[in-house]
Specification:
244 residues, mainly alpha, Herpes Virus-1, 3-stranded antiparallel beta sheet, two-stranded antiparallel ribbon, 5 helices, metal-binding, coiled coil
């Protein structure tokens, strides 16, 4: 459905009226035949029909397009009264900004936020209503901390409420202790696995170092043997030299 023409100030061009509801276009779409409709109106129409309600030309949802820019500009410039005019709002603004105004309008009728309260009240008077609403929440005057939500709650048993609160606190504390215990055990297991992994890595490194040491010792022995052989050969050569 579109915007009621009675809300608008001055003349509204016929081309800016929905061809179905005959109100001013709301969230408009245009058919290939250039007839314009409110989105909700044309979608509802096409559920049961497959043609334009004006000239009966065949149309489909996929053929609908946004309104021409110049028509959108003309539409957005229209001036209209706030929908809360009957409650006292005198605001007149452009169609382009009316939704933003009405979302924040002090004369809007809104529901009381207290559970169980069915009162509809103007936004500007909400704070005053909440202060005296019979469904407002407040603490027990006896000091037990219980939140009173309705008239029946004023007869509650403070001792029972305190016991319930104590049990809840005890249960919460037990849960937190168990959570802390599980977290510590998890951390210890993680550290233990890390240490085992580190130990394994160090053990492998030690074995590798031992293997390298063994190869070095073998190389040293080979070098010493080669040196002895070389010394013997020099001594033999020296002996043969003297004989000659």
């Amino acid at each position: 459905m579109g915007y009621d023409t009675e809300r608008f100030v001055g003349y509204v061009n016929e081309g800016l009226l929905c061809s179905i509801c005959r109100d001013v276009l709301e969230d408009p779409l245009q058919a290939p035949c250039e007839h314009a409709f409110c989105t909700a109106c044309i979608h509802g129409w096409l559920v049961h029909h497959s043609n334009c309600p004006e000239d009966r030309q065949m149309i489909d949802v996929s053929l609908l397009r946004p309104l021409y820019r110049y028509m959108r500009n003309d539409l957005n410039r229209l001036q209209l009264h706030c929908k809360n005019r009957e409650y006292g709002c005198e605001m007149v603004c452009s169609l382009e900004s009316i939704d933003r105004h009405e979302r924040e309008c002090e004369y809007s009728q809104i529901a009381c936020s207290n559970a169980g309260c069915t009162v509809q009240i103007e936004r500007r008077n909400l704070d005053g209503h909440l202060a005296v609403c019979e469904y407002r929440s407040r603490e027990c005057p006896n000091g037990c901390g219980y939140t009173i939500l309705s008239a029946e709650d004023t007869q509650h048993n403070c001792v029972a409420e305190l016991r319930t609160e104590l049990e809840l606190l005890r249960s919460e504390m037990i849960c937190r202790v168990e959570e802390a215990k599980h977290e510590m055990e998890s951390r210890l297991d993680s550290q233990r696995r890390h240490m085992v992994q580190k130990e394994s890595i160090l053990q492998n490194e030690i074995e590798e170092l031992k293997s390298q040491m063994s190869r070095m010792m073998s190389d040293v022995r080979s070098l010493m043997a080669a040196e002895r052989q070389h010394r013997q050969e020099l001594e033999q050569a020296e002996l043969e030299k003297r004989e000659l």
